[in-house]
Amino acid sequence: MKVEIYSDIACPWCYVGKRRFERALAAFPQADSVEVVYRPYQLVPDKSEQPEPHRQYLTQRFGPQAEAMDARLVELGRVEGLPFDLDRAIENNTLLAHRLLWHALTVYGPKVQGALKDRLLTAHFAEGADIGDRHTLADLAAQAGVDRDGAAAFLASDDGREEVLAEIDEARQLGITAVPTFVFEGQWAVQGGQESSTFLSVLEQVAKGTGATVSAAPAGDTCADGACEVPAP
Protein backbone atom coordinates (compact mmCIF):
# COMPACT_ATOMS: atom_id res chain seq x y z
CA MET A 1 0.00 0.00 0.00
CA LYS A 2 1.24 3.48 -0.84
CA VAL A 3 0.28 6.52 1.23
CA GLU A 4 1.14 9.98 -0.08
CA ILE A 5 0.92 12.73 2.53
CA TYR A 6 0.53 16.28 1.26
CA SER A 7 1.72 18.66 3.94
CA ASP A 8 3.58 21.85 4.74
CA ILE A 9 6.26 22.26 7.40
CA ALA A 10 4.54 25.46 8.53
CA CYS A 11 1.28 23.63 9.29
CA PRO A 12 0.87 22.56 12.94
CA TRP A 13 -1.82 20.03 12.02
CA CYS A 14 0.70 18.33 9.74
CA TYR A 15 2.89 17.90 12.83
CA VAL A 16 -0.01 16.45 14.81
CA GLY A 17 -1.31 14.39 11.90
CA LYS A 18 2.07 12.78 11.32
CA ARG A 19 2.24 11.60 14.91
CA ARG A 20 -1.32 10.27 14.89
CA PHE A 21 -0.86 8.47 11.58
CA GLU A 22 2.38 6.86 12.76
CA ARG A 23 0.60 5.64 15.89
CA ALA A 24 -2.08 4.07 13.69
CA LEU A 25 0.53 2.53 11.43
CA ALA A 26 2.29 0.96 14.41
CA ALA A 27 -0.98 -0.79 15.26
CA PHE A 28 -1.64 -1.94 11.68
CA PRO A 29 -0.68 -5.62 11.18
CA GLN A 30 0.45 -5.03 7.58
CA ALA A 31 2.56 -1.97 8.38
CA ASP A 32 5.66 -3.46 6.74
CA SER A 33 3.89 -3.36 3.39
CA VAL A 34 3.00 0.35 3.64
CA GLU A 35 5.18 2.90 1.83
CA VAL A 36 4.78 6.47 3.10
CA VAL A 37 5.88 9.36 0.89
CA TYR A 38 5.63 13.07 1.73
CA ARG A 39 4.48 15.42 -1.01
CA PRO A 40 5.00 19.21 -0.97
CA TYR A 41 2.34 21.81 -0.38
CA GLN A 42 2.67 25.49 0.50
CA LEU A 43 0.00 27.24 2.51
CA VAL A 44 1.62 30.62 1.82
CA PRO A 45 3.71 30.27 -1.36
CA ASP A 46 4.33 34.01 -1.55
CA LYS A 47 5.73 34.23 2.00
CA SER A 48 8.89 36.33 1.96
CA GLU A 49 12.21 34.54 2.30
CA GLN A 50 12.96 36.40 5.52
CA PRO A 51 12.63 34.94 9.01
CA GLU A 52 9.83 36.38 11.12
CA PRO A 53 8.80 35.64 14.73
CA HIS A 54 5.86 33.27 14.79
CA ARG A 55 3.76 35.38 17.18
CA GLN A 56 4.17 38.49 15.05
CA TYR A 57 3.41 36.65 11.83
CA LEU A 58 0.35 34.83 13.16
CA THR A 59 -1.16 37.99 14.66
CA GLN A 60 -0.71 39.86 11.38
CA ARG A 61 -2.37 37.04 9.48
CA PHE A 62 -5.20 35.99 11.78
CA GLY A 63 -5.67 38.88 14.17
CA PRO A 64 -6.92 38.51 17.76
CA GLN A 65 -7.66 34.79 17.42
CA ALA A 66 -3.94 34.02 17.00
CA GLU A 67 -3.29 33.73 20.74
CA ALA A 68 -6.14 31.27 21.24
CA MET A 69 -4.97 29.23 18.24
CA ASP A 70 -1.51 28.87 19.77
CA ALA A 71 -2.88 27.99 23.20
CA ARG A 72 -4.99 25.24 21.62
CA LEU A 73 -1.95 23.79 19.86
CA VAL A 74 0.21 23.80 22.99
CA GLU A 75 -2.50 21.91 24.87
CA LEU A 76 -2.99 19.48 22.00
CA GLY A 77 0.76 18.92 21.83
CA ARG A 78 0.82 18.08 25.52
CA VAL A 79 -1.86 15.42 24.99
CA GLU A 80 -0.13 13.98 21.92
CA GLY A 81 3.35 14.09 23.42
CA LEU A 82 4.54 16.65 20.89
CA PRO A 83 6.66 19.62 21.97
CA PHE A 84 5.49 23.09 20.96
CA ASP A 85 7.49 26.21 21.83
CA LEU A 86 5.71 28.87 19.81
CA ASP A 87 7.38 31.73 21.67
CA ARG A 88 10.63 30.71 19.92
CA ALA A 89 9.17 29.60 16.58
CA ILE A 90 10.25 31.36 13.40
CA GLU A 91 8.22 31.56 10.21
CA ASN A 92 9.79 31.58 6.75
CA ASN A 93 9.07 30.44 3.20
CA THR A 94 9.04 26.63 3.15
CA LEU A 95 10.11 25.98 -0.46
CA LEU A 96 13.73 25.25 0.46
CA ALA A 97 12.63 22.70 3.04
CA HIS A 98 10.34 21.03 0.51
CA ARG A 99 13.21 20.84 -1.97
CA LEU A 100 15.34 19.18 0.70
CA LEU A 101 12.59 16.62 1.35
CA TRP A 102 12.44 15.95 -2.40
CA HIS A 103 16.23 15.42 -2.39
CA ALA A 104 15.99 13.01 0.56
CA LEU A 105 13.28 10.98 -1.16
CA THR A 106 15.07 10.91 -4.51
CA VAL A 107 18.50 9.97 -3.17
CA TYR A 108 17.76 8.07 0.05
CA GLY A 109 14.19 6.82 -0.17
CA PRO A 110 10.97 7.13 1.85
CA LYS A 111 12.31 6.14 5.28
CA VAL A 112 15.00 8.80 5.34
CA GLN A 113 12.56 11.33 3.91
CA GLY A 114 10.16 10.50 6.75
CA ALA A 115 12.91 10.95 9.33
CA LEU A 116 13.82 14.31 7.81
CA LYS A 117 10.18 15.40 7.79
CA ASP A 118 9.94 14.63 11.48
CA ARG A 119 13.16 16.50 12.18
CA LEU A 120 12.00 19.58 10.25
CA LEU A 121 8.63 19.72 11.99
CA THR A 122 10.14 19.37 15.46
CA ALA A 123 12.85 21.92 14.73
CA HIS A 124 10.27 24.40 13.45
CA PHE A 125 7.62 24.04 16.15
CA ALA A 126 9.75 23.23 19.20
CA GLU A 127 13.30 24.49 18.70
CA GLY A 128 13.06 27.91 17.06
CA ALA A 129 14.89 26.75 13.93
CA ASP A 130 14.71 28.85 10.76
CA ILE A 131 13.58 26.34 8.13
CA GLY A 132 14.33 28.85 5.40
CA ASP A 133 18.04 28.97 6.24
CA ARG A 134 20.30 26.76 4.11
CA HIS A 135 22.88 26.07 6.82
CA THR A 136 20.20 25.14 9.35
CA LEU A 137 18.52 22.84 6.83
CA ALA A 138 21.82 21.11 6.02
CA ASP A 139 22.42 20.48 9.73
CA LEU A 140 18.92 19.07 10.18
CA ALA A 141 19.38 16.88 7.12
CA ALA A 142 22.55 15.41 8.59
CA GLN A 143 20.68 14.60 11.81
CA ALA A 144 18.14 12.65 9.74
CA GLY A 145 20.70 10.54 7.90
CA VAL A 146 21.40 12.71 4.86
CA ASP A 147 24.96 13.59 3.92
CA ARG A 148 25.44 17.18 5.08
CA ASP A 149 27.82 18.25 2.33
CA GLY A 150 25.53 16.78 -0.30
CA ALA A 151 22.52 18.53 1.22
CA ALA A 152 24.38 21.85 1.38
CA ALA A 153 25.47 21.57 -2.26
CA PHE A 154 21.94 20.68 -3.31
CA LEU A 155 20.43 23.64 -1.45
CA ALA A 156 23.00 26.00 -2.98
CA SER A 157 21.80 24.98 -6.45
CA ASP A 158 18.42 25.17 -8.14
CA ASP A 159 18.13 21.39 -8.36
CA GLY A 160 14.68 20.05 -7.62
CA ARG A 161 13.03 23.47 -7.68
CA GLU A 162 11.01 22.92 -10.83
CA GLU A 163 10.08 19.39 -9.79
CA VAL A 164 8.81 20.53 -6.40
CA LEU A 165 6.84 23.43 -7.88
CA ALA A 166 5.31 20.99 -10.37
CA GLU A 167 4.25 18.68 -7.54
CA ILE A 168 2.68 21.59 -5.65
CA ASP A 169 0.80 22.60 -8.80
CA GLU A 170 -0.31 19.00 -9.30
CA ALA A 171 -1.68 18.92 -5.75
CA ARG A 172 -3.84 21.94 -6.46
CA GLN A 173 -5.03 20.38 -9.71
CA LEU A 174 -6.08 17.33 -7.69
CA GLY A 175 -8.25 19.65 -5.63
CA ILE A 176 -6.16 19.64 -2.48
CA THR A 177 -6.69 22.93 -0.62
CA ALA A 178 -6.02 21.83 2.95
CA VAL A 179 -3.24 19.95 4.69
CA PRO A 180 -2.48 17.41 5.82
CA THR A 181 -4.19 15.33 3.16
CA PHE A 182 -3.47 11.60 3.09
CA VAL A 183 -3.98 9.85 -0.25
CA PHE A 184 -4.15 6.06 -0.13
CA GLU A 185 -3.24 4.07 -3.25
CA GLY A 186 -3.89 7.19 -5.35
CA GLN A 187 -7.64 6.69 -4.88
CA TRP A 188 -8.86 7.46 -1.36
CA ALA A 189 -8.28 10.66 0.57
CA VAL A 190 -8.33 11.51 4.25
CA GLN A 191 -8.08 15.18 5.10
CA GLY A 192 -6.81 16.56 8.38
CA GLY A 193 -4.97 15.35 11.46
CA GLN A 194 -7.58 12.71 12.29
CA GLU A 195 -7.51 10.59 15.41
CA SER A 196 -5.27 7.51 15.23
CA SER A 197 -8.33 5.27 15.39
CA THR A 198 -9.67 6.88 12.20
CA PHE A 199 -6.38 6.39 10.38
CA LEU A 200 -6.25 2.76 11.50
CA SER A 201 -9.78 2.18 10.24
CA VAL A 202 -8.88 3.67 6.87
CA LEU A 203 -5.74 1.53 6.60
CA GLU A 204 -7.86 -1.55 7.24
CA GLN A 205 -10.48 -0.51 4.69
CA VAL A 206 -7.90 0.25 2.00
CA ALA A 207 -6.21 -3.08 2.66
CA LYS A 208 -9.59 -4.72 1.94
CA GLY A 209 -10.04 -2.60 -1.19
CA THR A 210 -13.05 -0.67 0.07
CA GLY A 211 -11.41 2.70 0.79
CA ALA A 212 -12.77 5.79 2.52
CA THR A 213 -12.95 9.55 2.27
CA VAL A 214 -12.81 11.56 5.49
CA SER A 215 -12.74 15.35 5.80
CA ALA A 216 -11.86 17.53 8.76
CA ALA A 217 -13.97 20.34 7.25
CA PRO A 218 -11.66 23.28 7.95
CA ALA A 219 -13.08 26.76 7.58
CA GLY A 220 -11.53 29.53 5.54
CA ASP A 221 -8.01 30.90 5.44
CA THR A 222 -6.99 29.50 8.78
CA CYS A 223 -5.93 26.44 10.75
CA ALA A 224 -9.09 24.93 12.20
CA ASP A 225 -9.24 21.79 14.28
CA GLY A 226 -7.78 19.14 12.03
CA ALA A 227 -6.30 20.94 9.03
CA CYS A 228 -4.83 24.12 7.62
CA GLU A 229 -6.57 25.50 4.55
CA VAL A 230 -5.93 28.16 1.93
CA PRO A 231 -8.69 29.99 0.04
CA ALA A 232 -9.42 29.02 -3.54
CA PRO A 233 -7.82 31.37 -6.09
From TrEMBL:
Gene3D superfamilies recorded for this chain?
Glutaredoxin (3.40.30.10)
Report the GO molecular function annotations: oxidoreductase activity
InterPro entries named in the record: DSBA-like_thioredoxin_dom (IPR001853), Thioredoxin-like_sf (IPR036249)
Top-level taxon: Bacteria
What CDD domains does this protein's entry cite?
Answer: DsbA_FrnE
SUPFAM superfamilies given for it?
A: Thioredoxin-like
- For the DSBA-like thioredoxin domain, which residue ranges apply? 3-203
Q: Where are the transmembrane segments?
A: none
State the name under which the record lists this protein: DsbA family oxidoreductase
Species: Actinacidiphila oryziradicis
